[in-house]
Specification:
Helix 3 links the parallel strand 3 and strand 4. The strands form two sheets. Strands 6-5-4-3-2-1-7-8-9 form a nine-stranded mixed β-sheet, with helices on both faces. It is an alpha/beta fold. Helices cover 35% and strands 14% of the residues.
């Protein structure tokens, strides 16, 4: 029997608990109980160690008191792991530093940490709903940045909506008041999305001014100038295709969700991605038989829908980056934007 072609990337939601009250996200309102345990995480990755890339996310991850044990379980049992990355608000500075130190000490190919920041102080704290959060975020970033390791990269991540799109330069200027040599390439931009099962924010992002956001992305892309470093390359290609996504409302490239990537929530539900609500199944209920769910008729049906472009469509980094890697030739861009390369006709993928 042919072995299943399993994905190399998983977005892994460790918790929905969050101490922030963000305007664009309702995760903090979830009454989350019975979330995944470190023992379950160890069992899952022991059985399915093929993942090369684990994107750990929340909620605010550091609301979990056992986060270090959970990360250690991933590192110990996911034998193929190369890249581990996670976002955080930066509110829990000491815990963040400790986790990064422990993760690096245990050994990892590459670790990336994103500190979420949505503008200069006043804008950030208005959008995030927590006074004092900007100062904590920039201070945590300053401390992470001082940890010089060849396999560790901290960045600041900014989600662009109408309210903050014009504040990209002001955000960098504010950070430079604390970190004078902060570079524009250390600020990573993404665009706001709606999701029922993850963000639980239907109707809260629909009125985004696409023109304003696309212009902010284009300006930042010009400042950075691309580059051959893999992270810079993907960032540049992601940003170059934002206008195409806004113009059509569709993924600019054939999405690889449920082919090379997948999404597992805090209760072990397997979804195609962070956006689409249709569920493949539940790993707890199936005895953590990921391979069985992956070979199931349900996964193949949903994958066919993705390949046929009958999914909701998005351009989130979680799904866009694996999609870019799966379509490198078609993702070729000029400095000014995307260069469209026709794709050969292909049957639907499952």
């Amino acid at each position: 029997m042919r072995a299943p072609q399993l994905p190399y990337k998983v977005t892994f939601v460790a918790t929905y608990h969050c101490n922030f009250r963000c305007e664009m996200c309702n995760i903090w309102q979830k009454k989350s109980v019975d979330e995944m345990t470190p023992d379950e995480v160890a069992l899952f990755f022991e059985r399915w160690p093929q993942f090369r890339w684990v994107h750990l996310t929340g909620g605010e991850l550091f609301m979990r008191r056992d986060l270090d044990q959970l990360v250690a379980a991933i590192q110990k049992n996911c034998k193929s792991l190369f890249l581990l990355n996670f976002p955080t608000t930066g509110w829990f500075g000491d815990k963040t530093i400790s986790l990064v130190e422990n993760t690096l000490q245990r050994g990892v190919g590459r670790l990336m940490v994103t500190i979420s920041m949505d503008g200069p102080k006043a804008i950030h704290e208005e959008m995030r709903g927590l006074p004092g959060s900007w100062d904590r975020a920039v201070e945590t970033y300053r401390r992470l940045r001082a940890m010089r390791r060849s396999n560790f990269q901290p960045v600041i991540g900014m989600t662009l909506l109408t309210k903050n799109a014009e504040y990209v330069q002001a955000t960098m200027d504010a950070v430079r008041q604390v970190i004078p040599d902060f570079k524009s390439s250390e600020l990573h931009l993404n665009i706001g999305h709606e999701s029922g099962h993850y963000f639980d924010n239907r109707g809260r992002v629909v009125a985004v001014d696409h023109t304003k956001v696309a212009q902010a992305v284009a300006d930042h892309r010009k400042r950075n100038g691309g580059g051959l470093h893999p992270v810079n390359f993907l960032e540049d290609r992601y940003q170059a295709l934002v206008p195409a996504y806004y113009e059509t409302g569709r993924s600019p490239l054939p999405c690889t969700a449920l082919k090379t990537s997948c999404f597992i929530d805090a209760y072990w539900n397997l979804f195609p991605c962070s956006i689409w609500d249709d569920k493949v199944g539940n790993l707890r209920e199936s005895g953590f038989d990921f391979g069985g769910l992956w070979e199931s008729a349900r996964r193949k049906e949903l994958r066919k829908n993705v390949a046929d472009e009958s999914c909701p469509h998005c351009w989130t980094p979680c799904e866009a980056y694996p999609t870019l890697l799966g379509n490198l030739a078609r993702a070729a861009v000029t400095r000014g934007g995307a260069r469209q390369i026709p794709a050969p006709a292909q049957p639907s993928e499952t």
